[in-house]
């Protein structure tokens, strides 16, 4: 008899989106994990990689892009920086504004 474990989802803050193969979503992991993810995507031949973050992770997104440009891919260009605000529902039911950033990188 096999046991089936319940499927759990990780809350990355981007719940209503389809997964895209060229997006690195910044969260609570160390910055170097996201740099390695970007390097891996570029090494697979993708022409563009998008780094996306919300709230307090915005600082880590900027650190990721700068570390990638300084240490790994000196010729990577920032094609687009898109900032915005999302309305999110808190646990108590009230609404809050959450800042977002999307940084698109390419050669």
Q: How does this structure look, described?
A:
The protein is of the alpha+beta class and about 110 residues long. The chain contains two helices and four strands, in the order βαβαββ. Strand 1 (about 25), helix 1 (about 30-45) and strand 2 (about 50-55) form a beta-alpha-beta unit. Helix 1 packs across helix 2. The longest helix has 15 residues, at about 60-70. The model is unreliable at about 1-15 (pLDDT under 50).
CATH fold-level name: Translation Initiation Factor IF3
What is the annotated CATH architecture?
Answer: 2-Layer Sandwich
Strand order in space, largest sheet: 1-2-4-3
**CATH homologous superfamily designation:** Alba-like domain
Supply the number of structural domains: 1
List its traits.
4-stranded mixed β-sheet, 4 strands, alpha+beta, 107 residues, Translation Initiation Factor IF3, elongated, disordered N terminus
Provide a concise account of the structure shown.
The protein contains two helices and four strands; from the N terminus they run E-H-E-H-E-E.
Topology:
Layout lengths: L22 E3 L5 H13 L4 E7 L3 H15 L4 E13 L5 E12 L1
Parallel strand pairs: 1-2
Antiparallel strand pairs: 2-4, 3-4
């Amino acid at each position: 008899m096999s046991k089936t474990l319940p499927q759990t989802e990780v809350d990355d803050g981007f719940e209503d989106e389809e997964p895209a193969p060229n997006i690195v979503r910044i969260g609570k992991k160390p910055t170097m994990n996201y740099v390695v993810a970007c390097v891996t995507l570029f090494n697979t031949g993708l022409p563009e990689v998008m780094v996306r973050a919300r709230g307090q992770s915005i600082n880590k997104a900027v650190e990721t892009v700068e570390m990638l440009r300084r240490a790994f891919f000196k010729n990577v260009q920032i094609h687009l920086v898109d900032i915005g605000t999302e309305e999110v529902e808190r646990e108590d039911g009230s609404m809050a504004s959450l800042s977002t950033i999307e940084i698109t990188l390419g050669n």
